[in-house]
Amino acid sequence: MPHLVAIDLPGxxxxxxxxRREWDAGNAVLPVDRRLPAPARAALxxxxxxxxxxxxQGTTVLEGRxxxxxxxxxxxxxxxxxxxxxxVLTHAAVAASAHxxxxxxxxxxxxxxxxxxxxxxxxxxSVVTRALITGTALEVHDGFDVARVERAAIDGAxxxxxxxxxxxxxxxxxxxxxVLGGARPPAERPANTHTTYGLTETGSGVVYDGRPLxxxxxxxxxxxxxxxxxxxxxxxxRDGTTPLxxxxxxxxxxxxxxxxxxxLHVEGRRGDLIITGGENVWPDTVEAVLQxxxxxxxxAVAGIDDPEWGQRVVAWVVPTAExxxxxxxxxxxxxxxxxxxxxxxxxxxxxxxxxxxxxKVQRHVLQGSRTGTGIDQ
Length: 377
Known about the structure:
Mean pLDDT: 92
Largest sheet: 7 strands, mixed
Shape: globular
Radius of gyration: 21 Å
Number of helices: 9
Distance between the termini: 62 Å
Number of strands: 24
Strand order of the largest sheet: 8-7-9-10-11-12-13
Number of domains: 2
Strand content: 25-35%
Structural class: alpha/beta
């Protein structure tokens, strides 16, 4: 039986060589997030049970279990609480993703991919696997560093995968192609960027700029949930369970709609929808408006249980150096562009927002804390 090999190495040629070596041996790979504290790392290894570990000291045999023939990757899901799930992706699924993305973007032998996102997450790892499968040149960094990223572009890297916060820190004109994933993309972005929609369960983005990749089927249920079916989907979770229904559809838990021009618009996670006084409020929509306020550096919006409204709209704001907005400012700013029920009823000023490694705001962390200055109305 093939092994499941946990790779605990920094991003760089050593990681790529280890991945290639284990694949050549018929094994599957579990990338380990090196930023995890010791208890979280131990919990990850216990939950996903690799039977081999590769790190700077060499290879260690663990009391885990192997993989199934054809399995390529086990990727821990991100942004959730509790015991991590391992998404099992086969070689066929990884190859389908690599070829579909490369064809859509027009990647050729003259391109060079730069991987600078965390390799323990599918957004970063898929850059590496895509390059290996298609034979495209590849450069891998151990994390995002502005100077190194821009130097890589000057030295010949033409394509990169980034999150929105990283995009703002570099000169985007240095790259031919920038793939944006993770957090909500900026409202205004350079013409060479491509927004993506996908999950760990889809092995990377499967909808680019609102349009499904070749071979990707998208269905929207009557309640607005997005369903996906494509050759990139996971085989199962590491515990043997599957999120696929009997017809092979992945129920994403995301809600969306088709725009008049045929593009898919993703509203957000079903659980993120705020229902206040019987009205539906999407956090992303309110955040996009508040981000335009001159005294808002960063913002997150979520719903908090409220005895009168069912939920009340709350905004967590990182103020700019010039000063902090008041609740009245925030409400007036939102009310000028959106229905009044979208305006926050509470403002909490914070120093920073909790985010995943790929830049997604962890709303459940905000909802479970009283961090910040609460201002009710």
